[in-house]
Amino acid sequence: MTDIIDLDLGSARDGLAKKAFSALELARTHVQAMEDARSLNAIIIETPDRALADAKAADQRRAKGESLGAMDGIPIAIKDVFCTKGVVSRACSKILDGFSPTYESTVTANLWQAGAVMLGKTNMDEFAMGSSNETSALGPVASPWRRRGDNRPLVPGGSSGGSAAAVAAGVGLGATGSDTGGSIRQPAAFCGLVGVKPTYGRCSRWGMIAFASSLDQAGSFGRTVRDAAIMLRAMAGYDPKDSTSVDRPVPDYEAALTGNVKGLRVGIPKEYRVGGMPAAIEDLWQRGIGWFKDMGATIVDISLPHTKYALPTYYVIAPAEASSNLGRYDGVRFGLRVSGDNVLDMYEKTRATGFGAEVKRRIMIGTYVLSAGYYDAYYLKAQKVRALIARDFTAAFEQVDVVLTPTTPSAAFAHGEIAGDPVAMYLNDVFAVPASLAGLPGVNVPAGLSPEGLPLGLQLLGRTFDESGLLNAAFALERAANFTARAAPWWRQ
Amino acid sequence: MTEVKPYQVEGVTGGWEVVIGMEVHAQVLSQAKLFSGAATAFGAEPNSQVSLVDAAMPGMLPVINEYCVKQAVRTGLGLDATINHYSVFDRKNYFYPDLPAGYQISQYTQPIVGKGKIVLDLPDGSSRTIGITRLHLEQDAGKSVHDQHPDHSYVDLNRSGIALMEIVSEPDLRSPEEAGLYLRKLRTILRYIGSCDGNMDEGSMRADVNVSVRRVGAKFGTRCEIKNVNSIRYVQQAVAYEARRQVDLIENGGKVVQETRLFDASKGVTREMRSKEDAHDYRYFPDPDLLPLELDPHWVEDLKSTLPELPDAKKARYVADLGLSPYDASVLVAEKEAAAYYEAVAKGRDAKFAANWVMGDLFGLLNKAGLDITKTPVGPDQLGSLIDLIKNGTISGRIAKEVFEEMFASGEDPAAIVEAKGLKQVTDTGAIERVIDEVVAGNADKVAEYRSGKEKLFGFFVGQVMKASQGKANPALVNEILKKKLTA
Amino acid sequence: MALDNAAVRKIARLARIEVTEAEVEHYAKELNAILGWIEQLSEVKTDNIAPMSRVVDMKLPMRKDIVSDGGKQADIIVNAPETAAGYFVVPKVVE
Ligand SMILES: [Mg+2]
Ligand SMILES: [Zn+2]
User: Fold this and answer.
1) Does A385 sit within 8 Å of C46, measured CB to CB?
2) What is the DSSP string of B404-432?
3) C12 contacts in chain A (CB < 8 Å)
4) B143, B161 in Cβ contact below 8 A?
5) Residue B77 CB: number of other CB atoms within 10 A?
6) pLDDT band at B276 (very low <50, low <70, confident <90, very high)
7) Which of A180, A362, A364 to mutate to test the interface with C (most CBs of C within 10 A)?
């Protein structure tokens, strides 16, 4: 039999059902893996006692024939962006030092309701602002992956870098992420995982620390499409506490995974062929197109003419919303306070000390684009361009069922490699951001290796609320790509 | 009617006109807050009526209270205003310790209610129409307490998130009196609608007053905004003070700068607000946590058809159907409860006569006792019965006043008082003649004077007769018989 | 629309972030680079295009007017840096 630690979520679920092992054994194995992987800095708060208690409860339910289903007894890790009751939650910012919520986010509450076992909180870019996990106040995350013959630590991507690194290192069978402009799909691509961001409105944002409210959406990481689908189903659902949550039933995503894509119309947007894209990425994309063809899908060339403007649009809207969302971090009710001569001084010192460089940069940009005299030229303009970008997708989805693109323009890079140039960093999300602006679901499927031996992913985008169709296409792609590479476990020493 | 002289501030260089615009924050009478389920009751323990949303905890989101939307629309209809079927909630961003999120959810470019009007009832019976610019829904902030500690302020978020209607007027008001009348009339309308209790002591209605001065007919001057004035009297004082200050400033070669000021009630002055020194740039933008507010036109129509009769309509009806003077009608409709009381008294009776009793005797005693109409010891049925006793000649008007005072003190029915005290009017001609004969006999000298032409003495005789009958003699009969006896 | 140091200071003040003189220089450079890159949006023709007002096509949901929350002063202030008698405490605000 395979070692328990090597099982993916789907297989572990089956093993628990057959009583091949207990949830407690599974939890112990993952707690051990978590301890072994501390050098990655992927998990910033470990909750082993909680994990074991959760697992025992799952075993008791199972013994009584009251198992809660697919997630019952499954150990997972939670991105620090989700507020977890009694467990410090700070979006990896110094400004939320010691903040212990008295409430549980809807997404995590749904997971616990489904029986999931909590291992700990994962590292992330501060307030989800970053694409490399280097902006975390708790230090960078080392990707489990390394370039062939090169021991330099690589970034896991971001902002859900800790979640991606954890699952890729076998710590947890899945992890939650949040995606504002690629923060699930890009790290999934860098770490060789499946990462899915559902349609905006599918998962509740209640209790998820806000970055950019019109873009933020929770999603899941798994080793396989099935894993990500099982977990997403448990997370999703209507929440009357979130005015942007959609009141629609959540389908059984796993049941939709037939792998049949005959007649599926797969759109290939010509605008995603950007200059300077490495040959390996272009090749992978072509291979993806070939796989779909071979499986009987129809390839359709489409145009998304405003693609080029998505990134600058995003870098107006997201910072604008962030500048306002982060106004609540003022040292009055929670988190860090740096005292000052008066209230103003206290605010300025608290925020100057509590926020890191990238967060401050974005607050400044956001404040500027909303300020008197600039609102129309920047913010309003960006919201108009955003409408055009969304319209491009609406038109495209009249012709196709899914859109296939590369997920990132490159493989993972080393720590510090592009940290000095904000715009170069932003370009990481060039393929991810357009769908975020339009609120569409997207998924990364690991599909190949770069010449240096690093994972590369393909992105599929779907119609609004058609996660089932999207995940089935991803499932077919996953089978065709047959990506089996795993990072060598150097971190276990 | 005397011509009312327009209000002016007399300066050394001549007269100045005052231009006033009003922004009133009226708290919606709802159980729960605008975007959270916490209670709105007044006077609770600090931070006890606060939800995680009101404290702007990380990850918290607003969900709107339908009832507050409904009350804003009903109020808009009561102000004869345009209801906007599409409106947007914006964030107004600024930092203040009692503003937990760092922004207030408000409505900026697309409010729920557009242009409307309020008609002021002036004391001379005429009226003046004041334009309403808009009404929008927004959240209240918390409360900072500054006087508990020498170098700390204390923050209580119980008010944070309570629904307010901000009602903005055009700069159409021209005197402190008009400013007062405007607030009274607005409060009347809000109370009729039931959307706000208008209680300024508890802060459920607060006024921001914009004041500027100009030469009559000239362009508007630079205005100052006096924030959060919490009584009508203070508004009037603040306007008078501020207008004088601006005139003195200009006449001494200074310039009015646009600024936010506070009214210091203990000194009766306005002063610059230090915490607002910073030029503000609120960076409004649509709140991405909320969607646009779209109203079903049928729903709005339904609300319109179920609105109560409003003060202007009621006043018009009192004038047209009941024959009251415009001024009397406006006094009676000023409070919904008073109007209802009056109508109950007037029903099936002489409406003008009833109006005199309600406005004169009842309001007089209530006022003296410091009571509200809702606390009146004399019910409308009782006052009605009293009027009936006068009208059917059981008691005289003079006795009636005495009876009414007794009713007010004891709460007893008028008939019982009249009975117990034997106050029934004497209409027995023989009895009255006997009294008159006594009076005539006892004042032979005055009778002679009267008969020789000093007709003024007639009043004296009436008085003597009434006194002798302890006020119970029917005055008409006394007049008639006395005249006969004196001329005989 | 290049940002000068004064503009950076003004933005930092609005955002309530203390900046040192050295940081002002640095921010001016960085923000100008980002804004310059954003400038390309002006190429897009947006006449008669309504700005995006919602991501999902749905109506604003509403709650009933029922008191369902509050009564948890301890939870509200438990994470505060300074409290007294149930209040949050801040340095004196002078109105
Ligand atoms: Mg105002
Ligand atoms: Zn207001």
Assistant:
1) yes
2) HHHHHHH---HHHHHHHHT-PPB--HHHH
3) 364
4) no
5) 22
6) low
7) A364
Supply the CATH number for residue A142's domain. Answer: 3.90.1300.10
Side chain identity at B343, as an amino acid letter?
E
Domain ranges in chain B are 8-304, 311-421, 429-487
The residue whose two tokens read 């145009």 is A303
Has residue B3 got a pLDDT over 80?
A: no
Upstream peptide bond of A159 is cis (omega within 30 degrees of 0) = yes
Largest CA distance in chain B: 99
Distances in Å between the Cα of A284 and the Cα atoms of A272, A297, A457 are: 13, 17, 8
Q: What is the DSSP letter of A78?
A: E
Which whole number is the average pLDDT over B107-126? Answer: 95
Q: What is the DSSP letter of B274?
A: G
Per cent of chain A over pLDDT 70 is 99
Query: What residues in B contact A332, CB-CB < 8 Å?
Result: 97, 100, 155
Q: Do C49 and A384 touch (CB under 8 A)?
A: yes
- pLDDT tens column, A49-60: 999 999 999 999
Residue A391 lies in a domain: no
Q: How many helices (H) and strands (E) does chain B have?
A: 16, 17
Tell me, yes or no, whether A113 lies in a domain: yes
Pair A1, A162: CB distance under 8 Å: no
The CA distance from B414 to A486, in Å, is 99
Question: For chain A, what is the domain count?
Answer: 1
Ligand nearest to the CA of B23: 1
At residue B1, the pLDDT reads 42
pLDDT tens string B313-329: 999 999 999 999 999 99
Nearest to B130 by CA among B73, B82, B185: B185
**Cβ-Cβ contacts under 8 Å for A256 (sequence gap 6 or more):** A229, A468, A469, A471, A472
Burial class (CB within 10 angstroms; exposed 0-12, middle 13-18, buried 19+) of B302: exposed
Do B383 and B357 meet the contact criterion of CB atoms below 8 Å apart? yes
Query: What average pLDDT score do residues B373-386 get?
Result: 96
pLDDT: is B431 or A272 the higher one? A272
* Of A163, A172, A120, the residue nearest A143 (C-alpha): A163
Chain segment A198-227, per-residue pLDDT in tens? 999 999 999 999 999 999 999 999 999 999
Classify domain B429-487 by CATH number. Answer: 1.10.10.410
Contact A256, A469 (CB under 8 A): yes
Given the structure tokens 């023989």, which residue do they identify?
B430
Q: For residue A373, is it within any domain? A: no
Where does residue A168 fall: left (phi above 0), alpha (psi -120 to 50 degrees), or beta otherwise?
alpha
C52 contacts chain B (CB < 8 A):
no
Map B160-215 to HEC letters. CCCEEEEEEECCCECCHHHHHHHHHHHHHHHHHHCCCCCCCCCCCEEEEEEEEEEC
Interchain contact C86–A (C-beta under 8 A): no
- State yes or no: pLDDT of B277 exceeds 60: no
Give the contacts of A406 (CB within 8 A, at least 6 positions apart): A272, A277, A281, A282, A284, A285, A431, A456, A457, A458, A459
Q: Which amino acid is at A232?
A: L
Domain that holds residue A456: 4-263+399-492
CB contact residues (below 8 A), chain C span 57-76, against chain A: 57-58, 60-61, 63, 72, 75-76
Show the tokens assigned to B301: 């129509």
Residue holding tokens 């203390």?
C18
Report pTM.
0.93
CB–CB of A370 and B63 under 8 A? no
In the numeric block, which tokens belong to residue C42? 């002006």
Between CA B35 and CA B137 the distance in angstroms is: 11
Length of chain C: 95
Tell whether A40 is covered by a domain.
Answer: yes
